Structures are given as structure tokens and as C-alpha cells.
Amino acid sequence: MLSFIGRSIIQKTITLFFVSIVSFLIIHLAPGKPSQVDPLNPKFTPEIVERFRKEFHLDKPIYVQYVYFYRDLFTGKTVSWKDNQSVLGKIWERFLNSLPLFIVGTIITWTLSFPIGIRSAIFRGGLYDRSATFFSYLLISVPGFFFAYVLIIFVVTHFHVPVIGLKTFGIGDASWLRMIMDRVWHLLLPSVLGATGGIAILSRYVRSQMLEVEGQDYVRTARAKGVPEEQVHYKHALRNALLPFVTMFGLILPGLIGGSVIIESIFSWPGMGRMAYEAILARDYPIILTVNFVSAVLVLAGTFVSDLLYLVVDPRIRL
Amino acid sequence: MKTIGKDSRVDDPMADRRSGIEEFWRLLKQNRLAMIGLTIFGLFFCIALLGLVLTTGRNPAFDPAMVRLQEKLRPPLSRPNLETLRPEEVPRLGVYLFGTDDLGRDVFARMLQGAWVSLTVGFVAVGISVIIGIFMGGISGYFGQNHPSMDTLIMRFVDIMLCFPSFFLILTVVALLPASMYNIMIVIGLTSWMGTTRFVRAEFLSLREQDFVTAARALGVNHWRIIFRHMIPNAMAPVLVSATIGIATAILTEAGLSFLGFGVPPPHATWGSILSDGKRFIFDAPWLTFLPGFAILIVVLSFNLFGEGLRDILNPKLRERY
Can you give the pLDDT at residue A116? Predict the structure, then answer.
């Protein structure tokens, strides 16, 4: 167990190192220079550009830039090129905005997928199963931005509530109940949109796991000895079908920083995804690289957690 | 001496002989959703080809870039106002089938043009990713036993690539590169080969141990011939399934990029960019949002349905269980 943990931490650190190199190379070898973003700006005189390049070490060879950048990142001194603010501070602020979306979206995904998937598996081949299957394909296939507009039109014309942004602009002195309802309405649509793909995929996965287990011999045995149908499904089958999902708790970790670019820009939600998008537009390399690095860390940490959880719940693979 | 009659069934212990393709077709016809998917895909393919023919050239039948400012935001099926238009500006069908956009361009012509973009982006991007995936997975699975370092190298590279958030990576690279349709295809292809690599490697690891590969090796067939002639055809099933679903994903990704303004540069129309341009008029001209939206939805859905059907057909184990 300990050796497994040690080995995988070393392996993941090496992977992370290479991720940092690859992302640095992608950004810096691409055509175009950050000092050329705004060539029409009269303040961008050659002297200023030169000072800018010196300030951010852009005149040094690329491997020196690499060392400087990651030294700054680990000491927390990286600053955005655009407004000279601390990158980690900016990311943290945006992360707190994205967090409610992520939490509500995850809760919606997990609470809806399991009942849908289990019911599909129990009544397999029936009308419910077939329509659930079709709807999950529909949800995977619908482009998020299109679905967003359909939902916005629906909510705005039927419930007459504003949904764009974090909260209604200038709501300042309303009663607390209205404030909360306002926040809930603003939160609801982007989280539902973030959850659609997840619901479709997870419910299909629950269904196939459930079917797999329902075909096992011990389920037949339970049925043969006269255990009530309810108990067979929910006690014998479901508990074993849940095993692989424990590991998925680790795999949702990267979603923390993902924050959908498209959905956040449609809803003007000041979250991670939008910040990353704006950073790309402005060629703000420190932010792009830091977001990339943090998300790589989360991906690796997520797989690590899920491996560990699997080790804990499934004695068969504990070698 | 009496033999069992020639027409007796006992003589013929074999099941009905059916070629693989016949069997495939029979199973496909049973799967209604997959059949619908395939039909829509066929239709889409024809429309996209037709769109390419009708909207390109010096004097296209449907000109997607023809601006008629006096005819802007006309609803679908409305007739053009013939008095204000020059003869060459009158739409070919005598009616704006899908309406016009904010510059008075014929949305039907633009949708036709966009169909070809979606189709090529989907196929080229997936083609690139499948070729890389088969190559990397094949090398890693076939030579992995004798050269473990090569296997490790490739699989670690896969791990590294999987660490990047894919849409964000694509967006970054597309935003940094000059805008063009080919860059988008290449970037989507280069960032989505990891799944195929893993499938192919897993298939190769099991195929390598099978007798027909040992036999081929004993006959002195060289490595590359074994890989390409004997092993890859046997490893194609999961690759085909993931490629079909990959096309759907690539079309969605391209639409998302176009929507954010990083897609195929104007004046070329894509479904994503029509929707993106039309979103400002969502209450006045809802067809600018709904037509491309539903077009993307239907095409992507057909690929997903067909891919899932293919998975059921190509994998006998799944078929039994329903």
C-alpha cells in the first residue's frame, strides 16, 4: 500500500513536470508575441515594449523563462501581465465564483443519474428505458450554447426572472428573501447546463453497471430463494453495482477548475472559465499557464484519489 | 450401404453461411435507433456534398455571402421584395427558405455552406486522431514486450496529454494560431488521439498472444505486415465505435469554437457562427438561433446513435445482455 502510494506520487510528479514543459512550449512557440497584442495603442512605443519584455524576462532564452516562471509560481509571486495583480489571488477569487456552479451542478448530476439509471436497468427494454436512453443521447448531442439559449428564452418568457450574471444588477436594498431567490435563479440555469452532459453519461453508466450485476449468479440465487424483488434490486444488486462509482469521486476533482468557458461567457458569470478565456484573448501567459498547471495537478490528484479509493473498497486488487 | 440422405440436416452441421457484412447488416436493421442515425448521416453527407457544389465557384447557385441590406431579418419562407432587388440578388428558389440574417444574407445558402465545414472538420479531425492513435497504440502494444521503454514512453505521453483540459487546450492553440479551417481540424485531431491509443494498445496486448499471430510470426512475416495485415483489422471494432462518436464530439467542438469566435474565419459560414451572429436577435429573429442549433443537434445525435448501435453490433457480449 505504502509502496503503491510512493510510486504513484513519484510518477505523477514526473508527469506534472513534463506537463509544465509541454504547456510552456505550446504557449511560447506559437506564432505571435504578447507584446504585439495591441499594436494600435499609441502608448505601446518601442521603449515601452522593450521595458515590458525586460520586466517579464521575455528577452531571455526560453529555458531561462521557464525556470523564472515556475520559480515565481511556486513562491506565489507570479503576476498577470495585464494588470500586475497576483495570478494566484485572481484565480482564487474566480474559483470562489465558480464553486457554487460546480457544487450545484454535481449535486444535480449525482442525484438525478442514479434513480434514472437504476430504473432503466430494472425495467430494461421497456418504454421508460428506451425513452431514457434516447433522452440521454439527446442531452449528449445538444450543443451547450444552443441549449443555453433555449433555456434562457423559456425561463425569461415564462417566469419573468433575469438569469444573466451573478445577481441582478442594482438589487442592493431588496429584502433578503428576494436576494436569495435572485441568487438561486441566477445559479440554476448555468448549473443545470453544466450538469446535462454529466447526467446523460452517468445515468448510462449506472444502467450498464446495474445490468452487469443483475446478470450475476448470486442475484439469481437471491431471487431463487425467494428474496423480495425490491430487496434483490436494492440490497443485493445495487450495493455491488455502486463499487466503481466510489472511484468517480476522485475523477470529478478536475471539474473544480474546468468551469465551462462557453456557459460562463453566455451567462456573464465571472468564473474560472471566463477568466481563462479572457486571458487567452489578451495573451496573458501567466494566467493561461497557471490555470493549465493547476488543472493538471487536479487531474493527477483526482486519478490518485480514485486509485486509492478503489484500493480501499475492492479487496481483490489489493496486491 | 446406406448413407444419411443428402438433403438431411445432419450432413450439414454448419449454421447458415453469412458473410460478416450480411450479418452486420441484419443486426443493424434490428437496431432501430442506429438505423435512424445511419439514415440521417447519409442524408447529411449528401446535403453537405450538394452544399459544397452549390455554394462555391465564381457564380454559385446559392451565394452565402450575397448581402441584401434592404431584406434583412426576413422570416423563413418569406418572399423577396422583387422591386428592390437586382435580378442577380433574387434568391434561387424565389423564396427565403430559412429566412435572412441581419445583413440580408440567405440563411439557407449559409447553412448549406456550413454543412460541408461540419462534415470535413468531423472527418478530418477524427481521421488524424485515429491514425495517430492506431500508430502509437499499435507500436506500444506490439513492441511493448520486447522494448518496455518504448511502451512506457508512449503511455506516459498519453498520461501527459490527458492532463490538459481538452477544450481549453484547443481554445488556447486555436487562438494563438492564425485563423483557418485546417488549423482547427489539425488541433482537434492532435488533442483527441489518446483514447484510441489506449484501446488499440489493449486490443494489441490480447491479440499478440493469439495463435494466428504466432503462426504469422513462425512463417516469417515481418513485423509491419503482422501489425497492418493481421492485427489492425482485428482491433478495428472499438476504434470504429470511438471514431464515430469522436466525429460527433469534433463537430460539437468546432461549433463551440465558432460560437466563441475562434472558428472558421468569415465570410465562410459555419453553423456555430450563424448561431453566434444570430444570438443578438434571439427575440426578433429566433430562426437564426434555432435552425443552426437544431441542425447541429440532429447531426451530432445521428452520429452518437449510430456509434452506440455500432458498439452493440460489434460486441457480441453486449448484444446478449440487451
Answer: 93
Task: Give the Cβ contact number of residue B200 at 10 Å.
Answer: 30
Q: Write out pLDDT tens, residues B134-159.
A: 999 999 988 888 888 888 899 999 98
User: Quick one: pLDDT at residue B321?
Assistant: 47
State the burial class of residue B160 (Cβ atoms within 10 Å of its Cβ: 0-12, 13-18, 19+). buried
End-to-end CA distance of chain A: 8
C-alpha–C-alpha distance, residues A264 and A275, integer Å: 9
Check: CB of residue B42 under 8 Å from CB of residue B48.
Answer: no
Q: In this predicted structure, what is the pLDDT of residue B1? A: 45
List the grid coordinates of B92. Answer: 434561387
> What is d(CA A241, CA B115) in angstroms, rounded to the nearest whole number?
42
Stated as kind and residue range, the H or E segment containing A225 is none
Chain B residues contacting A via beta carbons under 8 Å: 33, 156, 159-160, 162-165, 167-169, 171-173, 175-178, 248, 252, 255-256, 259-260, 272, 275-276, 279, 282-283, 286, 289, 292-294, 296-297, 300-301, 304-305, 308, 321-322
Low-confidence ranges of chain B (pLDDT < 50): 1-6, 8, 321-322
Here the ipTM equals 0.85
Per-residue HEC secondary structure of B166-230 comes to: HHHHHHHHHHHCCCCHHHHHHHHHHCCCHHHHHHHHHHHHHHCCCHHHHHHHHCCCCHHHHHHHH
Poorest-confidence range of A3-17, A158-172, A296-310? A158-172
> For residue B75, what is its C-alpha cell?
422570416
Read off φ and ψ for residue A180, nearest 5 degrees.
Answer: -65, -45
Residue A51 predicted with pLDDT over 80: no
Query: Measured between CA atoms, how close is A42 to chain B, in angstroms?
Result: 23
pLDDT at B246: 92
> How far apart (Å, rounded) are the C-alpha atoms in residues A204 and A132?
9
CA-to-CA separations, A17 to A11, A24, A296, in angstroms, rounded: 10, 11, 10
Q: What is the pLDDT of residues A70-117, one digit of tens each?
A: 888 888 777 777 777 888 888 888 888 888 888 898 899 999 999 999
Among B99, B28, B49, B126, residue whose Cα is nearest residue B288: B99
Q: What is the mean pLDDT of residues A185-213?
A: 88
